[in-house]
Amino acid sequence: MVCGLGLAWSARAGRAASFHVDSRGGDDARDGLAPERAWRSVERANAAKLAPGDRLLLRAGSVWEGAMLQPRGSGAAGKPIVLDRYGDGADPVLNGLGRVACALRLENEEHWEISNLEITNRSPTPGKQIRGVEIRAKDTGTRHHIVLKNLFIHDVNAAAEYRNDGDTVAKSFGGLVTIIEGNERQTAWDDLRVEHCRICDIGPMGMVMLSTWMVGHREDDPKTWFPSRGVVVRGCTFERIARNGLLVRGSVAPLIEDNLFRECGMLGSGNAMFVFHCDDALVQFNESCFTRYNPGDSDAAGFDSDYNCRRSTFQFNYSHDNEFGFILICAQGGAKVRGFNEGTIIRHNISQNDGGNVFRFSGVTKGTRIYHNTIYTNATMTNPRDDQPHPPRIVYHKTWGGWSDDSVFFNNIIVNTSERAVYEFGESTGNLYERNLYFGIRPATEPADAHKLTVDPLFATPGGASAQNTTAAAGIASARAAYALRAGSPARGAGRTPEGAVTDLGAVFPTAK
User: Fold this and answer.
1) According to the CATH classification, is domain 2-503 in 2.160.20?
2) Range with the lowest mean pLDDT among 58-67, 394-403, 470-479, 504-513?
């Protein structure tokens, strides 16, 4: 083993090198520097110290079981270390079999690009604290350029027994977990990208970010608030997730776009995706659907502007068939918690056949702006909360250590075909409805609106957007077509911008992103 390591270092002579690993035809006594000289084991790959520009290549068709791949070394700006596949055949598989904490781990490294791997870590004993992929850093300062692309992460049964507990432990395990820890040196990600990954059959979390550097967020205290930047989650599929598909924490201006969230919340309370302790998050061009409600759940919506966030924007998304609503806007109040949610913007989204509460406000949210959305409720809309025998709501405000304030709805179209659906405002304050269109069944609780319209908006095919899509782009295209305004629609030119310009009502998607 020592001899093989020495050969590898002498052969590269300080230059970037490509190391090969082949689970079937490799030999750890070789130097790994060519396919015919490939190493065999994960352990041998872990023993190498990689340098900027190096490549660690796993042979297509290879499978490693019961072991953790934890390569060492950091790249440099413009010279990342690459972990990828080589050869023809299926993507190489890292299968932890539930015997290891995770199947792939990076720890305190940076400048990595990881692509084209299949990763699983299913334990025969459900509920172990395990992960598929783990990217972590502790007291190391900013870690730059971590890119994960085209990964298939599946069958990680970390915490099937965790249900509705709301604790941090239950939301710390699952498919893909990034961990910032420590409290001695400011640590965060800069340029963390997760792109075109498929994450499915995971418990409890599809992807989750953790950080110990969020405590001082409210006060922007640099001693305890050091957020990640350049966080992008793009073009991924999150499917059949026990709780939340995606949770982005501790970031400034994260970008979450072009993702498909399908059948989240399968075993316990969880909105399909949410941001937490973030400023200026942008959530756009996603499709979220079929989020499950379980008895006793508190969350099962398509989207969530969670608490301790400022200026989150949700735009150009398609939400449908989520059992407990389109979107939650929340902030737990009270002297001890002091949660906040300020300036959430929800615009140009389409919601079709979402149940429970289409818009749900919980707690001390402030300054929410909801405009240019298209909402269609079906006749069978229900409120599945078994402990709250209430009708379904189109808009619902509830207390959570206090009530929402300054929520403004304008230029929206709401077509309601449910005989039971209502609006419920509780003790919320500062609600303003202006220039919205209401059509179909109009409950007595419909809000006052000085310039409301109550006519058919003349959609192309109301209720006709596709519910079975393989990509978010396909779903959004279907929704755009179904809810296009036909010629002569009274919604055309019926809205006003805050500056007073004339505009159409309802969701309008750009012709090009």
Assistant:
1) yes
2) 504-513
